[in-house]
Amino acid sequence: MKQGTTLFLLMFFVPWMLRAQEAPQTISLQQAVEFAIKHNKELQSSQMNIDLYRQKVRESVSQGLPQVNGTVTYSTNFNYKMNFGGQAIKMKDQSNLTVGLQQLLFSGQWILGMQTSKIAVRLTEQEVETTELDIIENIYNSYYTVLVSERMLDILRQNLENMNEIYKHTDNMYKAGTVEVTDVDQIRINVGQLKNSLLSMERTVAVNYNLLRLQLGLEAGTPIKLTDALNVFLENDKSARLYVEKFDINNNLSYQLITTQTELNKKMLGLEKWSYAPTISGNYNFNYKILKPALDMSPKHTAGLTMNIPIFSGLQRDSKVKQAKITLEQSYLQKSLLQDQLNVQDEQLKFNLKNAMENYNLQKENIDVATRVLKNYQRKYELGAVSSLDLTQANNNYLQAETNYTEAILSLLQAQVSLEKLYNQLPR
Q: What is the band of 14 on the pLDDT scale with cuts at 50, 70, 90?
């Protein structure tokens, strides 16, 4: 192997091997949620929008604060001489220092604009909270998915060990001449299928871990270990409590968001209406002559008031008001539609939760039955009372029962998460 190739392989694999040898980072579900909220890049970007809109509020406020500007001018006439009654007078260079103060005294648009900017900040905060809730939901579902896939992986490993023992026992019986070779082959096929299922499940677990790492903002391959056991989330009455809880739509983030958006559109309509009103501003100027002309009559101090009265803008203001009215009406319709949709969603999610609860209890009972049947068939097989085909079928039925139970667990937990998200009750 060439030296360059060897060096490349070392650079690629050594960091990966070192990372793999690191002690796994233990993490509970609550810690996973807190870590994701702190490190998720999408959420960090959303949170920056809050600061952005707060600066826009400051910008809106500053438009009504005193504005002070200074100006320094210099002009020359290149020693030009003017003739006054036969007497030549040379014009001097001039230089002025002017300080001006402008103050907005009244503007309906400015007052309403500040209120609108503050509502926009609140809207942005709610959008960030919505993004945060989506991230929490993903963490919950990914954490649960890893746990149930690991449970199924453990079951397959235990089952493979049992079938390997049965295969050895069957092979010994064949060598002793008490069973036929077809019995050995049947068990061998079943062992091979279990090995394939085990490898497939190992890959599934790895993929689920990588998805969780991605949502946590960790590098691929970072060793992590989940500390919460699956039964912790099953040994509570959360499902029953959620099923009977009454839906308060005002706690739903989507409804809060559209309510704030409607309030914002209402302010925007008022903003356009105020464009018909006059604005009043005051000004004060101080003028200091650095280089004075021969004859200077201009005062040092001047002040004044200005009233700007909109008269006609080619129907532009009228069009903007009508557009704002249409947008506001659309907001009212969207809010009403969302209210109907959320109430239907509440009923559907409770229906899903009820089905998940019933299916979970049914599959849990089926596990007990399938386990007893398999153990019974294993004893009978050792006594020669049933064939290897019967034992294989009983084992397949047991694995199918375990698969159904595992899927029922995940469906139940995900149904809880969906309803908690709707109610805005996912623990943060």
A: very low
Yes or no: say if 235 and 111 are a contact pair by the CB < 8 Å rule: no
CA distance 364 to 135: 31
**283 in the Ramachandran plot: left (φ > 0), alpha (ψ -120 to 50) or beta?**
beta
Kindly report the backbone phi and psi dihedral angles of residue 304, in degrees, each rounded to the nearest multiple of 5, phi listed first: -170, 170
- Beta-strand (E) ranges in 211-267? 224-226
- The secondary structure of residue 22, as a DSSP letter, is S
Backbone angles phi, psi at 97, to 5 degrees: -115, 120
Q: Evaluate the CA torsion angle 51, 52, 57, 63 in order and state its sign.
A: positive
Token pair, residue 352, equals 């899903």
Largest Cα–Cα separation, the chain = 147
Q: What is the pTM assigned to this prediction?
A: 0.79
Residue 67 near residue 285 (C-beta atoms within 8 A): no
Which range among 43-52, 178-187, 360-369 has the greatest average pLDDT?
360-369
What pLDDT was estimated at residue 277?
Answer: 80
Question: How long, in residues, is the chain?
Answer: 428
- For residue 338, the cross-strand partners are none
**CB of 77 closer than 8 Å to CB of 254:** no
Instruction: Tell me: pLDDT of 313 over 80.
Output: no
Instruction: State how far the Cα of 100 lies from the Cα of 408, in Å rounded to an integer.
Output: 75
Query: What is the per-residue pLDDT for 86?
Result: 65
